[in-house]
Specification:
Layout: E1 3-4, E2 14-15, E3 25-27, E4 62-78, E5 87-95, E6 102-103, E7 113-114, E8 123-143, E9 152-161, E10 164-168, E11 172-176, E12 186-195, E13 200-206, E14 212-218, E15 221-227, E16 237-241, E17 251-258, E18 261-266, E19 269-274, E20 287-290, E21 308-316, E22 319-320, H1 321-326, E23 332-335, E24 338-339, E25 359-362, E26 369-376, E27 383-389, E28 396-402, E29 405-412, E30 415-422, E31 432-439, E32 442-447, E33 450-451, E34 456-457, E35 467-470, H2 478-482, E36 489-493, E37 504-510, E38 514-518, E39 526-528, E40 537-540, H3 547-556, E41 559-569, E42 583-586, E43 592-593, H4 607-611, E44 631-637, E45 647-650, E46 659-664, E47 667-670, E48 678-681, E49 688-690, E50 699-706, E51 712-718, E52 723-730, E53 733-739, E54 745-750, E55 761-767, E56 771-776, E57 782-785, E58 800-802, E59 814-821, E60 824-825, H5 828-832, E61 838-840, H6 846-849, E62 858-861, E63 866-869, E64 875-876, E65 882-883, E66 885-888, E67 893-897, H7 898-905, E68 922-923, E69 925-934, E70 939-946, E71 951-956, E72 962-967, E73 975-979, ...
Length: 1198
Amino acid sequence: MANLDSQNSDNCDAPLASSLPRASFTSSSELSSSHGPGFASLNRRDGAGGWSPLVSNKYQWLQIDLGERMEVTAVATQGGYGSSDWVTSYLLMFSDGGRNWKQYRREESIWGFPGNTNADSVVHYRLQPTFEARFLRFLPLTWNPKGRIGMRIEVYGCAYRSEMVHFDGKSYLLYTFNHKSVNPIKEIISLKFKTRENNGILLHREGPNDKHITLELIKGKLILFLNSGHANLPSPDALMLGSLLDDEHWHSVLVELLNTDVNFTVDTHTHHFRGKGESNYVDLNYKISFGGIPGHGKSVAFPHKNFHGCFENLYYNGVDIIDLSKKHKPQVLIMGNVSFSCSHTQTVPMTFLSSRSYLVLPGTSREDKVSVIFQFRTWNRAGLLLTSQFQHRSGALILVLSDGKLKLSLSQPGHPARDITAGAGLNDGQWHSVSLSARGNHLSMMVDGEAASMAHSLRGQIESGDTYYLGALYEQSCEAHWHRGNSSGLYYIDSDGSGPLEPSLVYCNMTDTAWTSVQHNGSHLVKVKSLNGESPHPVFFKYIASMDQLQTIIDYADNCQQELTFHCKKSRLSTPQDGTPVSWWVGRTNETHTYWGGSQPDAQKCTCGLEGNCIDSQYYCNCDADRNEWTSDTVVLSHKKHLPVTQVVMRDTGQPHSEAAYSLGPLLCSGDNSFWNSASFNTETSYLHFPTFRGELSADVSFFFKTTASSGVFLENLGITDFIRLELRAPTEVTFSFDVGNGPCEVTVQSPTAFNDDRWHHVKADRNVKEASLQVGQHPRKTQPAPADGHSRLQLNSQLFVGGTASRQRGFLGCIRSLRLNGLALDLEERATMTPGVEPGCPGHCSTYSHLCRNGGRCREKRRGITCDCTVSAYDGPFCENDISAYFGAGSSVIYNFQEHYNDTFSKNSSSVTALFHEDLTLTGEMATLSFRTTGTPSLLLYVSSFYEEYLSVILAPNGSLQIRYKLDRHREPDVFNFGFKNLADGQLHHVRINREAAVMFVEVNQNARRQVILSSGTEFNAVKSLMLGTILEPLGADPDTLRAGARGFTGCLSAVRFGPAVPLKAALRSGGHSQVTVRGHVATASRCADGTGPGAPAREATRPLSGGAGRSGPTDEGRPLVNADRSDSAVIGGVIAVVVFILLCITAIAIRIYQQRWLYQKNETNIPKTGDNAETALKSELNMQCTVNESQKEYFF
């Protein structure tokens, strides 16, 4: 209904962004001023040639303001000009006001858009359907792993004209039309609306005998009521469409009435309906109201309220109602206050996509009050809504939704928790308002305008904190994130659980081990030079976590380390006379330390001194040689009790020409000894005992258990009459029981599956003066209100028994780990070493965590946790989910010889996975997988040969269809199967899986197209010889089509290639490649085929050629195995070339040094704030000028 300037939507494709000023582009951050968003227009080359954020992660975005609301029909993207920075996939968001955003969802995918495969090609997408917006935001999801995020963008479309009207909830429009102009059998009403209110009348028309048509928004859903007369109200004829339509986004509505037939459309969903009754609706009054009902609905008995929000392009039988209203035509009566524009609300809703999502908001600290107001809606019965810690650990505020009710808890040290419960059934998907206040000594809460049933008096004054967390709970460590299968990234971890410390923001680096990285404010290279003799130069480091948080992280870690590098020229670490230190560092406890690296504390030796390879054997550190040239000592500090480094002091920088520099890496910690701290209970009478559990007013207990026993007590603590106990009461029941003076109370979680399945299950039990709760794994949390009588304090006096009871009956048989009481971890292993019937540690983690090992990876047990063995997987990485990809140039090939490997290894290693292949072995079935991206045909994807001229070939025919040939009998013709799903040589990534069992072959393409065929050539694959990828020359006994495809080979990207246990690309591309692999031509490591590495991709941007060396090669001597690729004449020639290049580099370095010398000596960088990028770059350049090749300088770290 909207008018387009072009008057033709087919021509609505003009570029909209290229003519905009730089100020129209904004972003989350920028790498530098030349990487700013103003350089993000398509094909722009000035600046750095595009936008790049400061940090490449999934939280970055690039935004464009089109200046006004436009019709958007297409988008296009590029990477950063001439760089390795591009985005491989992204989300597209749009908004009218730049605050309330909506994700654009393509019809064929709920996910984002595929992006670029290199820096400069343009990827263009036409949008179906189109949309109208002023603001667009691009959110990178993935990017080139060898570069950064880099984007240049264009938006296509045209101007959008519309008419709008705003209703304030008390107004409406009444349109009176000429009955002669109305089609007696057909009515068409169309409009768009947006609102924040979940109830309101959109339109109403009535007639005699209670006949009416009403369109109403009720609880976020649109309902069309139809009453053709003499029917009880509310009308039995009602159509309902949509959900959560009160989201402040535009929604389109179309109502078509044809006699008694009705078509009702909301957005893209249509409902057809035939109304009841004999008469149609043509005898209704010639008046229709929009936004409300005249006379407060005299003829409509069901409750309603007027509409509060905006209409756009409101048409009744082709008549523009809003235009008539603006022109004050007599046909339209305006009742109340309406405006002909649509203002953007300042209230912006946010969606939490998972239970781990959270929002961090700054607050005003040190106020004597806390006041929070917000609205929420959810269908979940339970969840964390708000947490905030007060200043000076004076308390904490926690607001949770439990069983559809809101519970506000205020905890203060030394005082019982104060709880307020309000509301009921709040998980109904509707908006509910919350207002809570803590001021002076008063705590109160209101829900939906109603005060809670009670308020509490507080003890002492409170001081508000400076941070509020909305949503989410935290894992205790990166180790816990690793065992949830989370990838590397920034996470908040809560090392002390329910203890007083706030969560810490850390970087979790997920390798085979989970590494926790805590950054500080001085990670760059800093140059120090003195003008005042030997005055000290202390440098202080501030970490993103507090010292208490750091101490907890370090204490719970298995190992911690921090790398400190000293670069020195005429600058020493100690005096030559008596070894007095002139440089030192300070740790967490404010103690001065003078030991360096791998040496023991106070040894005053660097690593080279312990290893005996310092550049001057008279000294124990390279820097102490006091040479007039740059040298270095790189040290790794690993004594946990001294970490992290908080200060570095360098004094010996006062000599003539004396200079020094240093760099301090982040604090790195691995493991979590509390997460895996465990004990195995072998008899029912054994237990571990600990001091009495102090949980008088508030107690929380959490742990993991696994068992095969049907019952047993996890822990028990007794008092004179009171007690607390957690037990496995039955194979499917876990019970939390306690007594506070009025008899036992119990909370039980039941499961449809048994808990005694020898898998780890997590238990969390809480008890306070208001209620007790229990949650086991992912089962719903169960709660039990505290008894009305009895005392509130849990009074215990016995020891805490873990794994058994004081009576030595009903003991637990199995394993318990990661036991925490009120946030404090108990050392089960230490107690288990001295307790009969209990052993420290617990084997058998793969039964729980093996699902983390994907794509054929095998779970391997470690003493603490698991590791994923990717040996027989075509993937690598910590979870075997990083596919191994290779770019094949023209004429290139990879040959994997099974027999050579068998002859060499079978007698030595009978467990070798590839030892299965032997000339006398008969295969009755095999599995093959591969992924590819190419545009060339015909192409050979995979060829497996045998000593008996049997083979398997997988090719792309000239038309791009997939063809599979099996020849399992040398005397018969091969079975040929043509899978004409589509042209697969389209430059897109495709996945093929083949599984043969005797004569039955299953084929799956792209995980959705599946086919089963029967082989006629045989059921046994005999004496498998080799697997070939790419070009093959004259394969013995192959059919003509395979010969043609083999001669042409394959040009493009192959990944995830596997045949049985053989993974040829891994053997060829990964270090330590096998001797049975031969590479011919240009085969290079690709980042990922899914990221677009394909035919024609520049090798410098997307691929890494195989370097010459043992087991690895680029172009090699024809037919030579990689292990023998080095030849003596090549070595001599390479050596000569290396010497010549080396001499030229030295000459160039000397020239550069002369040119830079004056500038370098004018710099005086003595602290972190004064150190800029230019100084760091210059220093690194000067350090790299050293041309001395000396074996003793292997400690250099640049």
